[in-house]
Design brief:
eight-stranded parallel β-barrel
Length: about 230
């Protein structure tokens, strides 16, 4: 997919209506709501996810982050949450994406690809036709206790740039992003958007308004790419 003229940013690990307001006022185009995970920060109960998703202003996408792999369980979880998108943080069985699209026709499917090495390119290409977008993150599903996001560490952005070049769907970049490296990330990968969790939070894991402001200023600064892409819908 060609680089976009104006990338977006998504704030993940949203835990309250106050954090929702802060992220929206800063200019976030999407919010990530994290359900039960084997590890990592930002998890909130499913009923709170539904409460927040139901009060997000129109025009702001809400992503339910789920580690579930069974399509029926994912469908049931989403129907309670009511988000506009599903962010699938683990690899799904063959055919599962088609089941989800059939059961949830108005919901955008976003698959996370954990960039642990060059093999991530083939994984992203294999799933691209079945989803609306991908998130390139820095987890490690191969560990005994899976890491499926929220690691706060970078991966090899050159691999992510190769993936972005080869896919015809939007690519979000995640993993170790913060206001200080956001420009480098945008210049290196040229993604559709940045997906940030720990990098805009304080020592108590609360959203930091100043960090949000700095991230937004970087992402919203004019970029000359010569072409523009399309959204995840």
């Amino acid at each position: 997919m060609d680089p976009v003229a104006r990338p977006r940013f998504k704030i993940c690990c949203i835990s309250s209506l106050d954090e929702t307001r802060l992220a929206v006022e800063a200019g976030a185009s999407a919010l990530g709501l994290v359900s039960s995970m084997p590890s990592g920060p930002g998890v909130i109960p499913d009923d709170r996810i539904a409460e927040i998703a139901g009060r997000v202003p129109p025009g702001i996408d809400t992503f339910l982050l789920t580690s579930l792999r069974d399509p029926d369980a994912i469908i049931a979880q989403h129907r309670k949450a009511g988000t506009s998108a599903l962010q699938l943080v683990d690899e799904l069985p063959r055919g599962a994406h088609d089941e989800l699209r059939s059961a949830l026709p108005g919901v955008r499917l976003v698959q996370v690809i954990h960039v642990t090495g060059p093999e991530a390119v083939a994984k992203a290409e294999a799933v691209a036709e079945s989803v609306h977008a991908v998130v390139l993150d820095s987890g490690n599903p191969g560990l005994k206790v899976k890491q499926l996001g929220g690691t706060g560490r970078r991966h090899d952005w050159k691999i992510s740039a190769r993936i972005r070049e080869r896919l015809d769907i939007p690519v979000f970049l995640a993993g170790g992003l913060n206001p200080d490296n956001a420009r480098e990330a945008l210049d290196t990968v040229q993604p559709f958007g940045l997906d940030v969790c720990t990098g805009v939070r304080d020592a108590h894991f609360q959203l930091d308004p100043e960090k949000l402001k700095r991230l937004a200023a970087t992402v919203m600064a004019p970029i000359s790419t010569g072409s523009s892409g399309h959204g995840p819908g």
